[in-house]
Amino acid sequence: MDSGTSRRIRGSFFLDILLCCAGLLFIGSEPAAAQTESELRQTFLERFARSYFPGRSGQIMVVPRRGEMITRPEPAYQFMHGSPWDYDTDIPFLLYGTPYVRTGVYTDSASHQDIVPTIAALMKLRLPPATAGRPLLRSLNVSAGPPRVIFVAVLDGMRKDYFDWYASDLPTMMRLRREGAWFNQAQVNYLPSTTALAHATIDGMILNAPFNRITGKQEDPFPNMSPRNLMAMTLADVWNLANDGRAVIIAQGSVFYAAAGLGGHGACLLNGRPIILVAYDARSGGWQANTECYRLPEYLKDQTSRTVWEAANGMWLGHSISNPDAVRRSALFARFEADALIELIEQEPLGTDEITDLVLVNLKTPDFVGHQYGPESPEIRETLTELDRQLARVLTAIETKLGAGSFSAETTPALRAPVLALTAKWRTR
Fold this sequence. Notes:
Blueprint: E1 5-8, E2 22-26, H1 37-50, E3 68-71, H2 86-89, E4 93-96, E5 104-110, H3 115-123, E6 149-155, H4 162-165, H5 171-179, E7 181-186, H6 195-202, E8 211-212, E9 217-218, H7 235-242, E10 249-253, H8 256-263, E11 275-280, E12 287-288, E13 294-295, H9 306-311, E14 315-316, E15 319-320, H10 332-347, E16 357-363, H11 365-373, H12 378-402, E17 419-423
């Protein structure tokens, strides 16, 4: 952090949205101004304590002044998150899917830790005793039976107030919010509100760049895309073991740690079976996987983002995107991600038996674009508009796969419709 820079800007932007084939979205809204200075201090200390690991965590916790941020002197990371203020810790969280989810705005407190228990309640899955969080049962109709498919979509970098700022550009998300279960008191309840902790609490235990105290260096948490450093089972791992690999489990992410945090260990867990897990390779522009643990479908092996930037003559809104890394920082990448996801939905046998299948995806374009251009930029508005459009395509693909009306209000329990869960990881200023 000593190499970072303090900046002042209105609001933060980084949150992830989670969509589970049921329909769930939580958004927290406890304004910091409502608390006194002493109350804020106590809240911050409690949240820092939740993420403290003796012998591993740092000893000094930095709290920037409200309205400021600590960032890096790199063009791709001009805007950052991590503060304890409400603009970084309020998160959206939404569930959607008749008849499993009860439509309404819920004032219950909620956080990332509640995602897995809530999904598990729908699946009637018993979780390990150490699992954090609680099922948000008021929003569920657990008597409807397990859904055929649960779709968890983490919209990385999707801050809560985007739903207000850009409402007219987000018809799909606004409809899900209106017709689903929306939790308006959801917050990140630990500090710092940074990437590693957010991925850890959405579906597993994961770090972006762990610090090796012996060597004094940051290290790749997943060398050669190995999940051996993943120290807890994810929801996907527990479900994989529970049905001996018979469930279809698909995980996708634009970086490996985002996909692995959702998909877990696959066949590299004792008694685990291979799952489909694909991660974008920012060097080649294609999809990759560790085939010792996961399955990379043949039909994705030839897909490359080169087609995206070449079709745009290497430019987007005046910015060069003519390489596999730069193209991720554009709205055009949202369609590339969605094309792969839709191919997975169409090709794999989702919803064909009584075992609930899982589709777990991290859609990261708001994160990439927000870090570089900020939450009030023309670039983020264009990106959110395109993301909303691609989310609609994905939902249509699921509905086509499972039958017309899968996500509609007319769905009956007998059809065992899918469930959608949507949340945000945090926001970035």
